[in-house]
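haha ok so turns out i had the wrong file open the whole time. this is the CORRECT one, sorry everyone. sequence first:
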Amino acid sequence: MRSHRPHRSHGPRGPRRPARPRRPLALAAGLVGAALVLAAAPPPARACGPDFPIELLGQRPTTIAELEDGVFLELAGALVPAPTARYRVVDDRGEVDPAGESAIERALYATGAEAFHAGDHAAAERAFTQLLALPPALRRHRSTWAAYSLGRLRAGADAIAAYRHVRELVAAGFLDEGGLAASSLGQEARLHDDLVVTVRLYAEQAAHGHAAGATSLLLVARDAVEREAEGALVADPVGRRLLATYLRARGGELTAAQRARLWAALLGPAPDPAPTGADLPAAGADLLAAAAYRDGDLALARRLARRADDTRLARRVRAKLAVVDGDRAAAAALLASIDDGGDGGDAPRVCGERAILAARDDRFVEAMAHAWAMRAHHPDVLYLAERVLTIDELIAFVAALPPADPGRDGRWRVDPMTLRQLLGRRLLRAGRADEAIPYLAPPHRRAAVAYAGALARGRRAADPLDRAEGLYEASLLARRHGLELLGTAHAPDWEHHDARYDVGAYLPAEDPGPWRTPAEVARVAASAPAWSGRYHYRHVASALAEEAADLLPTTSQAFAATLCWSARHVRYVDEDRVEALWDRYIDEGPAVDFAPSFGHECPAPDFARLRAARPRPPAPAWQLVLVVLLAGAAATALARHLRPPRGAARP
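then structure:
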């Protein structure tokens, strides 16, 4: 009996009943096994709300220094080269009823399935054999099913031959709706006594994307280490890579003795390794270099990285070591040589590391480009766009983007439209309203035009009362539409998450040390919002309302009302400011009937009453001169009229 316990990837012990033709349950047990393996690991920590990604730029020392272990079930698919033509892989969540199959192949397969489930294996084998003897044109759909079922009926070499026949049929062009060719690799693997052959078959199955192959490899590696039987695998290149993958990705489940024994077996017996690392084995050296780097053995990591093939992982290890040596240029070049800008595997992490290196050299637009390539980590994109790039740099970056990217972006991801609206709000905060409007979403443009107009009136009107009224109107718009017009996509407002989640501080608590330059610090300070707290636009609204109050007579109802609105805008957000506004109202304002509800229920300021009550301004000097002249002319005319005519008798 074989000592290893590979994953069972076959399903029930026979073909399906003919009443409901389906594909065999080739993956059911595989999925169950994978679930059990994953269930043994602790669940990932999640925030309350969406599963927010890590801010790589917010944890620069950690991001640039650490090399993630990777996921064994993903890494196992790369133990052998990817096949040029991948077999179809399906799960067991739906029925498969081949369309277009001939009546005779359907009937023969149904007969065999019926006999199998009745326990008449001889009759089942005859039916499946007859099906495979049909002319090829009459059995294009069910040939793989029949061959696979024969493998389940037979044992030993005959079963192995049947499973290989499944793959031969697929290579010859027969259809494989049930994904049985990929499953047959795992089925055959279970039948071999040679552990190396078993591992190679499971590795091929995993390379086709079959989950059962990766799970079986994990169980084989774990069993071999537990039994101290890893020697058979060390001698084989694929087996060595399997053990190296296990050490890298699942090393935490090993005891210290197991880890030491596995390292010794993989490195070999050389007592005095040559400095070049030429004595070390090449197969799996990149995986071992990553494990050594993770464990802090930099000398061993260097030797293994020099010995390793020029793989993506080897370059990543070399880049990490270059950073340790202070050679950022070499690290950037190595990362550039492997970055494909994709979403899978370590691609987002590589993009993040490139962004960190670019920012460290004050190449902020380049950092933004790298962050954009990994925008699944959207907080980094938002941080660079909101705080680090200048507005003009961001305008140029946005102009170069396509109008939309619907295939890549989801609910919490950043797409070009997200970046355009971020730019619009940033322009509006900077007072560049005319430029901002086209970038905002159409539903918000009318409010933006009204806000910009009210603010312009509040800043430029000649009459102080008109300025106060404009500022008050702008404060109401900033409060009611502040998130859409002024909110920051990143902290403090997190407009990108509809302001429903406080994801974190703008500058993370972790000290970035030498990884944030004075130039970046200066840019962050220059782009800071008006208030550092959450819902900063409410503070903007409060400041505008108080600015309006500054222009009004302190004895007026409008003065008290604008102070009341100023407090109301920041109620429950900045209670210290509410208290200060209340004190100002008590010290300067009039005693009006809304004092008890100050900051809660506020009346509209009565600007009309102020206009009507204020004294008329004195007439201009030219008007007084004109009045005097007119009065003089009138007096002269009257005097002439009353003067008696010449020659009249005097009294």
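The chain is about 55% helix and 0% strand.
again sry for the mixup
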